[in-house]
């Protein structure tokens, strides 16, 4: 679980609720018509913008931001170096038992192709296509939240206009001005909260998750190509460590 994302969401909600409670209380900030306009309206607009299959994954995509799949890059490098050592010593066919037990689907697929004797160019092409398509799907999923941020803000402005129209039409009735003004102001607030607390930040962290996954797959692809070509384990490790920040590079040959 990504504590930074969880703590950030919880903290900003707590701060907003605390500020409300210290003022006039939380109750006045709850307005059902405003919720219907902003939350209901923005989600309905998302249903127009994206396929039903993508919308079904809305909460699953959100959980990727909260609890992303973890991959220890140093452990991955260690594994690939060990595979390279065994392949260099006993031949690439000796990796078949390791492939059967491998949990990383991308690594398993690439190694299986190498063991089956596929040409390096074919392996690289197929794995790069898979990387590109996976990244494209992730970007589309992330765009759901960036779109939600923009749509929620727009629905907030629509609600503001509706509230102002209702208020102007009822100027003769002072008792009707308050509820109309509440809709006008609270819809803008709800739209701003959705856009700046959930929409944009979640879209941004999903983009970071996508970049991290692409980096791991690039490392795996480099490892598979080196294993197939018979590179020395030390040379492979040097290649893979170059993907990491200087302060993260720890060689097992030292």
Task: List descriptors.
254 residues; mainly alpha; 2 domains; 10 helices
What topology emerges from the helices and strands here?
Blueprint: H1 3-22, H2 32-49, H3 52-56, H4 58-66, H5 73-90, H6 96-101, H7 105-115, H8 120-169, H9 174-229, H10 233-241
Helix pairs in contact: 2-8, 2-9, 4-9, 5-9, 5-10, 7-9, 8-9, 9-10
Main sheet properties: none
Low-confidence stretches: none
Helix content: over 70%
Sequence of secondary-structure elements: HHHHHHHHHH
- Strand residues, percent: under 5%
What would the average pLDDT be, to the nearest integer? 89
What is the tally of helical segments? Answer: 10
Straight-line N-to-C gap: 32 Å
Per DSSP E runs of 2 or more residues, the count of β-strands stands at 0
Shape: elongated
Helical/strand content category: mainly alpha
What is the number of independent domains?
2
Radius of gyration: 26 Å
Task: Note down, in words, how this protein is organized.
With 254 residues, the protein is mainly α. Helices cover 80% and strands 0% of the residues. The chain has helices at 3-22, 32-49, 52-56, 58-66, 73-90, 96-101, 105-115, 120-169, 174-229, 233-241.
């Amino acid at each position: 679980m990504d504590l930074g994302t969880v703590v950030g969401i919880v903290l900003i909600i707590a701060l907003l609720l605390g500020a409300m409670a210290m003022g006039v209380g939380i109750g006045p900030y709850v307005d059902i018509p405003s919720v219907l306009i902003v939350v209901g309206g923005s989600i309905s607009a998302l249903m127009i913008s994206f396929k039903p299959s993508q919308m079904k994954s809305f909460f699953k995509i959100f959980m990727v931001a909260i609890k992303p799949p973890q991959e220890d890059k140093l452990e991955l490098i260690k594994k690939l170096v060990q595979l390279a050592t065994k392949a260099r010593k006993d031949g690439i066919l000796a990796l078949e038992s390791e492939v059967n037990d491998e949990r990383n689907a991308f690594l398993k697929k690439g190694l299986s192709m190498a063991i089956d004797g596929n040409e390096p160019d074919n392996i690289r092409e197929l794995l790069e296509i898979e990387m590109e398509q996976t990244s494209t799907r992730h970007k589309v999923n992330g765009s759901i939240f960036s779109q939600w941020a923009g749509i929620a803000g727009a629905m907030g402005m629509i609600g503001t206009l509706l509230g102002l129209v209702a208020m102007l039409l009822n100027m003769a009735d002072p008792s009707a001005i308050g509820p109309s003004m509440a809709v006008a102001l609270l819809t803008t607030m709800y739209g701003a909260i959705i856009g700046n607390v959930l929409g944009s930040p979640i879209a941004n962290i999903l983009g970071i998750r996508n970049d991290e996954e692409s980096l791991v797959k690039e490392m795996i692809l480099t490892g598979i190509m080196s294993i197939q070509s018979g590179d020395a384990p030390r040379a492979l490790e040097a290649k893979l460590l170059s993907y990491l920040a200087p302060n993260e590079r720890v060689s097992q040959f030292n």
